[in-house]
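Render Guanidinium exporter in 3D.
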Amino acid sequence: MAWIMLAVAGILEVVWAYAMKQSNGFTRLVPTLITFVTMAASFALLSVSMRTIPLGTAYTVWTGIGAVGAFVVGVAALGEQLNLARVCAALLIVCGLVLMKLSSAE
């Protein structure tokens, strides 16, 4: 269950990062509210998952999901640049996440 909560926390990190971008520096109310609500939920789920998942593993997986997710959303929804170097960087992050999960005692 902790891994599911951690995955949801990572997905919520992507949501709040996208909403923060859409808030235009916190000048738009709805995206600003979405940012803060999903940020709080993401932190709460991360915190609960850390009851059983080691700190280094949980934090690395959480930030990795956020980083790769934000990259995908940036390319898919915001028209950000997609090139071989950025794809390779994202794949390396995913490889690190898989290795972190496989090396965890939990």
